Structures are given as structure tokens and as C-alpha cells.
Amino acid sequence: MLDIDRSVFADTGFGLLSHEFRLILHLFSKDNVIVKDATLSAHLSGRAFHEMLKRLEADGVLFMEQNENDRRSNPT
Question: What pLDDT is stored for residue 48 in this prediction?
Fold first, then answer.
């Protein structure tokens, strides 16, 4: 699904999936995703992406944990 969405986005500049669903699929397909990588895959500005993360975390859809090695957060 993510590959199809990426292909359509590359061709048209528009994705087929909502930003939230794209992020959730990205998180399920990989372990220990760092915020920077997830931001790049979301096709959102940094501010919009972080607002979306806060909303999803507040709704209990995902949670953030601090990585002790690099001090960036990992959504899981």
C-alpha cells in the first residue's frame, strides 16, 4: 500500500492515503522508527507532522519513547 501511495505521489504530487494512515502503516512496517524518518515519509511540514503526532499520541494511537542513545523520540 505504501509503495502504491509513493508511486502515485511521485507521479501526481498527491497521495492516496491520509497522513495519519500513512504514518501508521509506516510504523507497522518498520521497527524503531525515528521521528526524522517518519516526518520525511509523511509529506508534511515539520510543524504539521508534530501536531499530528501529538494528536495521535493524545488519542492513544501511538506513544513516544525516548531513545537513550541519541535523545530523539521514537514513535511506536
Answer: 92
